[in-house]
Amino acid sequence: EVHLVESGGGLVQPGGSLRLSCAASGFDFSNRAMNWVRQAPGKGWEFVASIASDGRSTRYADSVKGRFTISRDNGKNTVYLQMNSLKSEDTALYYCARAIDCISDYCRERGQGTQVTVSS
Question: What 3-state class would DSSP assign to 100?
Fold first, then answer.
């Protein structure tokens, strides 16, 4: 059974930083590409970033490119999202998911999410 636990969210001022973590279990993590997606209040799903199974290839939404960095530690079965220069429009619930479980911006299997609120 796929099990994903996101953490690291919180309240941060505009321009601040947060680092999200996603601990994975129940599957062969080192052989799966991973995604971060988000859902803002009253809005649809939005792809944020993805990383290949070996960590050598990454992809970002235009809205976060240059500010967010996705990374992974296959020894710890964990994927990270470093978020810098945060903006109010980054406020959302952030989820991690296996790329294979995602179609476009929607991922059918994901964790419980971690809330990121950017506000002064």
Answer: helix
